[in-house]
Amino acid sequence: MASIQETIEALRDKLHHYNYQYHVLDNPVIPDADYDAMLHELIELEENHPEYQSDDSPTVRIGGEPLSNFVKVQHETPMLSLGNAFHDQDLRDWDQRVKNGTGREDVSYVCELKIDGLAVSLTYENGRFVRGATRGDGTTGEDITVNLKTVGSIPLRLPEDANLEVRGEVFMPHGSFQKLNAAKEENGEALFANPRNAAAGSLRQLDPKIAARRNLDIFLYSIANDRGKGLESHHEALEYMKSLNLKVNKETKKCASIEDVIAYVNHWAEERKNLNYETDGIVIKVDSLPLQQELGYTAKSPRWAIAYKFPAEEKMTTLIGIELS
Ligand SMILES: NC(=O)c1c(N)nc(OC2CCCC2)nc1O[C@@H]1CCC[C@@H]1O
Predict the structure, then answer these.
(1) Of the residues 72, 114, 247, 273, which is catalytic?
(2) Dist. CA 83 → ligand 1 center (Å)
(3) Are 166 and 131 a contacting pair, CB within 8 Å?
(4) Whole-complex ipTM
(5) How far, in Å, CA of 199 to CA of 192, rounded?
(6) Helices marked H in 109-173
(7) What is the model's pTM?
(8) What does the alpha-carbon distance between residue 98 and residue 258 come to, in Å, rounded to a whole number?
């Protein structure tokens, strides 16, 4: 007969696994009703046995008591912004600067969809999610750990005792945005103008139960401090993140030349309308980490990355933000 503690731990492991399958792999392995039944069994066990409380139990995802305010967080390494490109030629000019700066002709790149959400930093200690913060001004952000714990695609535990900080973009999928605004319109409340504002507004709620209802999601795109992992390239870093159950966008692609990058950009300029989340461009990064080091940074952004911005769509909206187009 398993002890209460063993029963609680076994339930937590199962629910973490089902959650990963559902939110990260988009591959549910049990019916939602079964997941909910197990979660409520765990809630009851934890209420009856507070001595076994744990702040990375799946039950924290429903959100606890509201905060009175957000604590400030200093980012160990600044969360930088990106230089912009608007035309294919801007990308070719940037590629030439990269080649001049490194003295290399064989520079390969990684292309990532530029997710239009809220940039966040996630810190894991001994494989546990211990802190999440907004980008803020790049140096100082706000501690929104309790709200980020409600995001199903953010693992509360990693499959190994890793110590790392990763960065990514939290976003609200289109379907959730439309449902949220429909509910707000129903209640005569002000609507969110776009999914980015809805995601930011949801994460900056002091009441985590509100964030938990907003069906937010995340894509992670960089490791801020790969303490001793000895990674050589950005695409290896992304593979390592995936091996830690972290959600990385599946459209990310390694490109052998700037012409391949331009082909990727032109493909997604059209294809992005079929995605169920907002993008506002493509982020292109030099793949080699040693070459990134060599190129370094300007005052506010890396020389080894650039954002190709898609033209902002002219959307007719009424005063309260209902799109007419
Ligand atoms: N929004 C994104 O999808 C995205 C991305 N895919 N990759 C990066 O790489 C960072 C790391 C090096 C410099 C920027 N940044 C992104 O967004 C950030 C948020 C704030 C400034 C950039 O837009």
Answers:
(1) 114
(2) 10
(3) no
(4) 0.98
(5) 9
(6) 145-148
(7) 0.94
(8) 11
